[in-house]
From TrEMBL:
Membrane spanning stretches: 12-33, 53-70, 90-110, 116-140, 152-175, 181-203, 215-233
InterPro entries, sorted: Cl-channel_core, ClC, ClC-type_chloride_channel, RCK_C, RCK_C_sf
One Gene Ontology cellular component: chloride channel complex
GO molecular function: chloride channel activity; monoatomic cation transmembrane transporter activity
UniProt membrane topology term: Multi-pass membrane protein
One annotated GO biological process: potassium ion transport
Primary localisation category: membrane
Keyword vocabulary terms for this entry: Chloride, Chloride channel, Ion channel, Ion transport, Membrane, Transmembrane, Transmembrane helix, Transport
Protein name (Swiss-Prot/TrEMBL): TrkA-C domain-containing protein
Pfam families: TrkA_C (PF02080), Voltage_CLC (PF00654)
Length: 334
């Protein structure tokens, strides 16, 4: 489901068969080696009461905002490290130095977070302690990623979601008097909600939580939280985190793309740099293209050896997010 929804963004029979076959094979091998018990077994949940569904919407909004904040900090941290006056290959020493005392005095704070999820799912913990653990893991995970030594996103996000769910559950119990037996439900639903907000993959989140709990009785409340988180995250302008990381990796800025292709024309002025220039030497910004030339009421498609003449009308297409940059560069040549 993750491959279909997050990686390829489309459903097809061939893709489904390939991804499903690979998943089943990997699952069989994992079962053979590690056993059939899931690595993160949350157990079954009680049916969530319909009269408390307002909590799910409110919690969905909260986890969406936190998911947006998570991505914003995640993308900013590498820039923050660049301000440190040390070579990039030494960035990893900062989380390394921090992890030593943490490993000695608070070893349970390290790792992906499965231990923390199991801990807070087994009993009620004070809100102040939960907030402290959340802030610590939120901060340290970004310190680790920003250094170029990422410790993963999937499980850390689930652990942060579990902490948010426990914090919200404690607040709901204190303010509205909802039964404390539903604290684990809040934890599970918030995990799915935060994962949805960060990855923009609600179906994956729902399927993942369903596998962890081994029951479908929670599908409706979980879907409400995930849908709310998805809509709010989309409203905040949040993009899938893996796409953001990919675009950052290949030095592109996806937010510049607006998805609308604009066509515009430029007339070659006499004695300008464009006048007499060969098309092969015209360097256009990314996301733009010269599509045709109009000369003396005749139109033709240019090739690399086409020479622009004074009075030629050059027709360009570009994403609307790049039009101003393309025009600015052409103005310098014209």
């Amino acid at each position: 489901m993750f491959i279909l929804e997050e990686v390829h963004h489309k459903f097809s029979g061939v893709l489904l068969l390939t991804a499903f076959s690979a998943s089943i094979t990997a699952n069989f091998v994992a079962y053979t080696i590690f056993g059939v018990q899931p690595a993160l077994d949350l157990g079954s949940l009680l049916q969530f009461p319909l009269e408390h569904y307002a909590h799910l919407v409110i919690m969905g909004i909260i986890v969406a905002v936190m998911g947006w904040a998570y991505q914003e900090v995640l993308m900013y941290m590498p820039n923050l490290y660049k301000k440190i006056p040390i070579p990039p290959y030494l960035y990893g020493f900062l989380p390394f130095i921090l992890v030593i005392p943490i490993g000695i005095f608070l070893p349970e704070m390290l790792g992906g977070g499965t231990g923390i999820i199991s801990l807070i799912s087994s009993g009620r913990i004070s809100t102040l302690l939960l907030v402290g653990i959340f802030l610590f893991r939120f901060g340290y995970s970004h310190i680790s990623y920003g250094s170029g030594l990422p410790g993963g996103i999937f499980i850390p996000v689930l652990s942060l979601g579990a902490l948010l769910g426990a914090i919200y559950g404690n607040g709901a119990i204190w303010i509205t008097g909802i039964e404390d037996i539903f604290i684990r439900s809040f934890i599970v639903y918030a995990m799915g909600g935060l994962l949805t907000a960060v990855t923009k993959a609600p179906l994956t989140a729902v399927m993942l939580i369903t596998e962890m709990t081994g029951t479908v009785t929670h599908l409706m409340p979980l879907a409400v939280v995930c849908l709310t988180a998805y809509v709010v995250a989309d409203f905040l302008g949040s993009d899938p985190v893996y796409e953001e990381l990919l675009q950052k990796k290949i030095h592109q800025i996806p937010k510049v793309f607006e998805g609308e292709v604009i066509e515009f024309e430029v007339s070659v002025e006499p004695d300008s740099d464009l006048d007499g220039m060969m098309a092969r030497y015209l360097r256009l910004p990314y996301g733009s293209k010269l599509v045709k030339v109009r000369r003396h009421n005749n139109e033709f498609i240019p090739h690399q050896d086409t020479v622009f003449w004074s009075g030629d009308e050059l027709f360009f297409t570009a994403d609307s997010g790049f039009v101003s940059e393309v025009k600015k560069q052409l103005d310098k040549l014209n």
